[in-house]
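Reopening this one. Same input as before:
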Amino acid sequence: MKRQIFTEDHEAFRETVRTFLAKEVTPHYEQWEKDGIVSRDAWRAAGRQGLLGLAVPEEYGGGGESDFRYSAVLAEEFTRAGAAGLAVGLHNDIIGPYLTTLGTDEQKRRWLPGFCSGEIITAIAMTEPGAGSDLQGIRTSAEDHGDHWILNGSKTFISNGILADLVIVVAKTTPEGGAHGLSLLVVERGMEGFERGRNLDKIGQKSQDTAELFFHDVRVPKENLLGELNGAFIHLMTHLAQERMGIAVAAIAGAEHLLEITSQYVKEREAFGRPLAKLQHIRFEIAEMATECAVTRAFLDRCIADHSAGELDAVHASMAKWWATELQKRVADRCLQLHGGYGYMTEYRVAKAFTDGRIQTIYGGTTEIMKEIIGRSLLG
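Same output, byte for byte:
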């Protein structure tokens, strides 16, 4: 079915993204995977190409384009290229909205130009060793010392943790406030007491630097409070729908791409004297996955269009996130099986997609949390 949500401008942007990936990412990606980190040069190249800060106002160096469809194009093409390590989606679609909607004029002037040029790489630090999806379990705290905060605590599984120059930290500013006693503090590279732990060794997305962060009596100026004091819970809830949509868009794109390469593989691979594609079981497997992808794509494209129009609610974003990521996981597993022993070899794209995509049902809110959000909305 021909997709109907994109215009000629979106498709022209898609070609720009593909050219960027072919020139600046794909030739270097194998080395980045070995290094466990992406080169900062790639971030600056993305900035020069206009791929960073798509929705940031032009006065701060951004694209001034609030249409989420451009972000969807970016997510789809990065996924098809297998380039999860360069976390442009995290930077643009998750962290960007915090800075543009919550930042003061002074904060925007200070941070957004570098955000758009790739000179400032960003991260958001919520998860702790003892607190994942449960914000009430956050122990990182900030004490009020007049003109500054004193921040103490630790975070883990932080994407861009090694490279980040600017980290939005969720910290407890009112101990008795529970989830409503949390604030967002911006910690910048070089602040005394801000330390990074090891670059964590993951089963997939090897080039995406994921780290532990430690804060020992970090002096954070009051002007680095982002948004309202004790307002982090509301701020986080406001922006989670877009985060989940970005993950869902990447998930269906990943599933579709795996289906493409596996369909081609079973046409070429022979067993018992004929191509695998001639076996009824193989045809049924491909038919089932193609149908599931087509149905999911129809729903996701509707969600993309609704979000671009400012009409997508948290419940449908949660539906999109859990359904698309679970589909991606199933498709990756089935496609690997159809590749046989070759599917287990890392040189084959399906093996990398299997390990890279496994995190999709976990970060941004687990499948179980998504179902809980949906269930509560329906049953009270």
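So the earlier flakiness isn't reproducible anymore. For the record, The radius of gyration is 21 Å.
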